[in-house]
Amino acid sequence: MNDERSLTLVRGTRGMTRRRLLRRGAALGLGASALASLRGNRVFAVQEGEPVALTIWLEGEPGAVTAFSEIIDEYMQENPNVDVTLTFFGSDLFNPTLVPALNAGEGPDIWAGGTGPGQPAAIIEAGHALDLSPYFCALGWNEIIPEGIVNYTSSDGKLWAVGDSVESTVMFYNKEIFEQNGLGVPVTWDELMTACGTLQSAGFAMPIGLGGADKYPISWWQSLLWGRYAGPEGIDNVMFGDGRWDEEAFVQATAKLKELNDAGCFGPNALAEIQNNVEARFWRGEIPMVHTGPWIIGPGIDAVGEGINKFSAFQVPPPVAGTPIYPTEDIGTGWYVNAAYEHPDVAADLLDFVFFRDESRQKMLESGDNVPVGELDLENVELPVIVQEVFALSNEYRQNGTIHAFLDTVTPASMTDVSYDGLQAVLAGQMSPEDFTATVQSAWEAAKAENEHLLPGGVTCS
Length: 462
Fold this sequence. Notes:
The protein is about 45% helix and about 15% strand. It has helices at about 20-25, 30-40, 65-80, 90-105, 120-125, 135-140, 145-150, 175-180, 190-200, 215-240, 250-260, 275-285, 295-305, 345-355, 360-365, 385-395, 415-425, 435-450; strands spanning about 1-5, 50-60, 80-90, 110-115, 155, 160, 160-165, 170-175, 210, 290, 310-315, 330-335. The protein is built from 18 helices and twelve strands. α3 (about 65-80) links the parallel β2 (about 50-60) and β3. The longest helix has 25 residues, at about 215-240.
């Protein structure tokens, strides 16, 4: 089932410096008269009053009102000649519907989709996605989108999607339990292990919650530790170079994950635990820590109300002394423009308004619907304290470089299947770290042979 909403409202202007105006006009080949008209209207491809229709497909509940839909309303208030139609699809219908529609020339002008291997790569290869790199450079997106995200939304020097819905993972913890047991925030790996032991002695059977029965929460730890040991460059060297997943860094990282499990940090049998139950028990004060993402904060507020102030978060300490903290970061969505759309400048202008305008970024943050890419300005944003703390953790260490929060979203599905099953086997003592990484490498090689992996990315602005 899908739902269409035609949003037709009216819009004013957004201020623009002359430098940005000239950069934009030069990059897009606009003449002096077009540049002059830009002063009164950000939509630089639309002649006076020319009606422009633009359709957007995205996943969501029919009729949903979100920060995104409200920002689209604002865009059209400032551009009354642009009529944007939002079409919402259930998650089970979006992917099967998109490709046939694009192939038939009936697809959307903009759509929100995945950025990993598989369908996105097929869409790009078929020529359906517009190269956004001219706008990336001319509109200053290159100054906001982190290089690590650009690398995974581009190939052949071309940007295919605007990354969005940034997701990260941190260690959430119960401040009250820590204080009652004389614990501070661990800043070294030894201190984290000591905290596990202290909490076990205090009667907490599972110091760090882990829903191992669901498999994917173990892969969050895999992503974190593999990234911490190899660093951003080491991960990219495997993804896009001649590196291997069975290198010593990944073996050691997997051994460190098993060390946590064998020490009882994940409880007596994490493989029998369901993640939703683990997170619910965390909010009830039965589990002191859980490594997950900020999406749990909303349910937490629902569960404990003002008691949310008893909770906070910290970055997992470096597993190797003296190494940097690399925050985890991945995007949940990429925004594509149809290469056949006759008003690409309008589509780019809309993306610029939605994802790079300060007011839009603030609205998305405050709504809890979305975390924009790049450094976050938290000074004027009204958010629960715990949310601000989580975002501040990423901001604080982002200059070190970022690593993947979810390797399973950027590696081939066949490799993910092997990783999920293998991680459970490692924790169960049925597979060694060496055998696990060798199995993952074999799956990686097979997927690469079938061209199921991401191509090297990166965009250079002159």
